[in-house]
Design brief:
Blueprint: E1 10-14, E2 33-38, E3 56-62, E4 74-75, E5 86-87, E6 100-113, E7 116-122, E8 131-137, H1 140-143, E9 163-165, H2 167-175, H3 184-193, E10 209-213, E11 216-223, E12 226-234
Parallel strand pairs: 9-12
Antiparallel strand pairs: 1-2, 1-8, 2-7, 3-6, 3-8, 4-5, 6-7, 10-11, 11-12
The structure holds S-adenosyl-L-homocysteine.
């Protein structure tokens, strides 16, 4: 069969300007918001009629930062500590034969701003610039399967870590423009509580890490059981 060609219907604008620190699945950090900008000719109001009544939608998207990498039959999911392999089809990794992902995200609203149709989303796990191929309403009666079993990932990761801020980091949150960096402190807490460090680096206590949100560099380190946000500043 000849290869297919799909045209993106829109692009994600999110706070995640690099992969490190992005939640590993949707819904884990509700404060992780994004805007999906729909491009013509898909931005017709009638194409979205009745969608607003759904609290959640499926996004079918391209892992565009994985496209340059060849796929492998096995991958190392972060869930297993990043050092044990499972089959690519037993994983949600972006490094797959076809780099297509799907995320069920919260639909916060639909608006038209300066002519552009925008879907406001919450609980996302997507990089800024992610091309979106399709949107479908999430159907709880069909998509939520309460008695499903889930192999090596039976539950959401537990052991959320307490997140504390140094005085400069706290001040940086207070003075950040809320229009440019909405919910900055709650977002940082939600993201860092998940401990985004690769599991095999967990022994690297005290080592500084940096996570990029928008154009900000969020510097943190692990101190005992807690995560300390040291500074938040312009990325250089
Ligand atoms: N819910 C999706 C994605 C799970 S993997 C699915 O199951 O198909 C989530 C990880 O994908 C994120 O932590 C981030 O590191 C990575 N990611 C998100 N958007 C991406 C993109 N556009 N290109 C490459 N990797 C991306």
């Amino acid at each position: 069969m000849s290869p297919f060609t799909f045209q993106p219907i829109g692009t994600i604008q999110s706070c995640f300007t690099e992969k490190f620190g992005i939640p590993r699945q949707p819904g884990l950090v509700p404060e992780a918001r994004a805007v999906l900008e729909i491009v013509p000719p898909f931005d017709k109001a009638e194409a979205f009629r009745k969608l607003e009544a759904f609290s959640h939608i499926w996004l079918i998207f391209v892992f565009h930062q994985c496209l340059a990498h060849p796929w492998k039959a096995t991958v190392r999911p972060p869930r297993l500590g990043g050092n044990r392999r499972v089959g690519v089809f037993a994983s949600r990794s972006g490094f797959r034969p076809n780099a297509i992902g799907q995320s069920a995200v919260r639909l916060l609203g639909i608006e038209r701003k300066k002519g552009t149709l925008r879907l406001n989303l919450g609980g996302i796990d997507l990089l800024d610039g992610t091309p979106v191929l399709d949107i479908k309403p999430y159907l709880p009666y069909a998509d939520a399967i309460p008695d499903a079993t889930a192999g090596y990932a039976p539950e959401a990761p537990a052991n959320l870590k307490p997140v504390v801020f140094t005085t400069p980091a706290e001040q940086a949150c207070q003075s950040a423009d809320p229009a440019a960096y909405p919910d900055l402190k709650a977002l940082i807490i939600g993201l860092l509580a998940q401990d985004p460090r690769p599991a095999y680096k967990e022994s690297n206590e005290g080592k500084p890490f940096g996570m990029r949100l928008w154009d900000l560099n969020v510097r943190f380190r692990v101190d005992g059981d807690q995560i300390v946000v040291e500074s938040i500043g312009a990325k250089n």
